[in-house]
Structure formats: C-alpha cells, structure tokens
Description:
Layout: H1 2-38, E1 52-54, E2 62-68, H2 69-72, E3 95-97, E4 112-113, E5 118-121, H3 122-139, E6 144-148, E7 150-153, E8 156-158, E9 194-199, H4 217-222, E10 228-232, H5 237-240, E11 245-251, H6 254-263, H7 267-274, E12 283-286, E13 292-299, E14 306-312, E15 318-319, E16 322-323, E17 326-329, E18 335-341
Parallel strand pairs: 4-6
Antiparallel strand pairs: 1-12, 2-14, 3-5, 5-7, 6-9, 7-8, 9-11, 10-11, 12-13, 13-18, 15-16, 17-18
Amino acid sequence: MKLNIRWTNSLCKKTGLCLAALLLFVVALSTAVSKSKASDPSDSTSQTDGSSSQSAIIKYDTSYKQIMNDTFANNSGLLALDNKDHRYAPEPLNAVSVYQYIFNDKGEQIMTTSSTNVCGTEFMMKHLNLMISDFVKQTGLKTIMVRNASYQHNGRIYATQFDVDEKKTDRSGAANDKGTLSSDGCYEHLSGLAVDLQLYEADKGTYPQFTGEGQYSWIVENCYKYGFVQRYTAAKQEITGVQAKPDHFRYVGEVYAKIMHDNDLALEEVCGLLKKYTYEKPLTVTTNDGTEHLAYCVKVDKAKSSTTIPLPSQPESSEDGINDYFDVSGIGDGYLYITSKVPQTAPAAPPAQTSAEGQPEKTE
C-alpha cells in the first residue's frame, strides 16, 4: 500500500512537470504566431489593387477648412442627386462642348457626337475621353457616339437636345418640384455629370443602341476606374425609380465609383454607407492608379452658416475651381461627404487584423 502511494506521488510530480512544459510550449507557440501575423503585409487594409476597406485609426497632421453650408450641404458636388425625391439645383461647373473631347491625345478621332451643342462638366468630359481612348486601344472600335449629356442652346442649359422647347426642363422656366425628368425618361442631365452613349456604324450608316454587350461590356466593367457608374440598372430599379438604361452613365469621381462598384450600390445608397465613417475612422480607398484616399462624413453645423471639416494636411492646390486632393459633396441630409487623398508624407498605417470589417460592406 505504501509502495502504491509513493508511486502515485511520483507520477503526480512527473505529470505536473509535463503539464508545465506543455503550457510553456503553447504560450511560446502563440507568441510566435502573433508576431508572424502582425508582420504579415497581407493583413494590412491598405491595398494596391483598387480596393476599399475600413482603416485602422490613422493619425495625420490635421488642417481645418470652413465649408459654406448653403453651397455644399444642399445637394451639390459629385454625389448630388437628381431623382424623384431630389432636384438638382446648381448650374454645371465649366460646361464645355463635347467636340474637343472626341479626339485622343494624338489628335485621332475616337468617337462621334449627335451635336456639338452637347456639353458637360469639364472634368467629366476629360474622364470620358480617357475611358473611350482606352476602350479604342482595347477593341479597335471607334463606334461610340455621345448622344446626350447636357445641351446648350442660346446660352441656356437643357437636359437634352429634345427638351429645348420643354419649359419643365429649361433652367429659365418652371421645373418639377421633385427631380428634373427629361424627355428620355431619366434624370440628372442638367448636372453636367451624366452622359448617354449610342453607337454609330459609319460603314453601315446605322445608329444601334448601346446595350453594353459584347465588346462594349468593357465599358460597363471598367467605367468605375475612370469615375463613372452605370446609373440605372435593372437590379436597382426599385431604388432609382428609373427603368434600366444601359446607355446612361454618371460621373461620380474615381473614389465614389470604386466604393459603389465594390459594394454594389446605387447612387441613392452610397451616403448610407458613408455615414458609418468619420475622419478618425475613415474608409480607405485605393483607386485604379494606386492612389490612396480617405472617405468620411461630417455633420453639418446647422447653428452656423458654415461647417468646419478636418482634412489631412498637405499642400492645397486647385485647378479650374476643382480641388485636386479633396472633394466635398452634400445631398441635404445634414451631412457633408468628404474624400481626400492620403498625404504622401503620412505615417504608414499600423498593421490591421484581417476581419469581416476589413472587407467591402454591403448595403441591403
């Protein structure tokens, strides 16, 4: 009996030593895994493939800018809405004729237009030119025709060339209280940010509709890289209130187009997503050219005529009235929506753990 007791005590001591050694091994292994994961660059949410993801808190030197509420908060900027519930009010900025943009940088004609009076915002036209130039390089097709954008006639801007005699879409006449519906059954041509495409087959003398099929699917699949979205799709008809129009594209800028593309959002939905992000915890977006941007919102200061917005400090420059490193939009919902380039001198983002929050969000 005593022998059994000694044997049991000895066994307990040996077992205790084994358990202690095993515990030390587990702790060492966990520490090694943690260090390996923290140093793994694949866990960073800052990517170079044009992704959008939630960023860890990133600290920059911050500057502040006063934004006039009546100018920016009430439905203006790249996110401005013109639909059954919102009416677009501002005039297009720097509206220019499409004619000078139907040639590529070598002076070769790459597309046609239904009229030289078709016009649009200058930066929209520039990006349209870049997109169609690359489409021609990819396919060799020079059959794209710009049928509608805005239409300038006798110094006035109309929704389309077919609306010149329709006072409801003339900026000098009465307009619908909610939205400005043009004769082609959709909105937002008055913004100068939308364009309708058609085809012109010169060898046949025909004008087929643009359906976005076949080789033309390249435009549908790649337009977001140039800041455009296919505005009215069948899948979003209940949200937009407009039947599918595959020929209608809206310029929203590369950052918002990337967010909408990644998260399958209509323009009416994107602000709902952006409300989740602040300057302290922004959405980080890498556009097609590899440039990183922040996207976030700030509540409008309704007690004052202006709202103070934070921005990462960097040299501020402007071209043609459009700032080239940040943008401010509003749709009249009490928020300002801001995108800003990440400063090149900013500190690197701390490693982030891969999680569901690090993936593009879906809006239901």
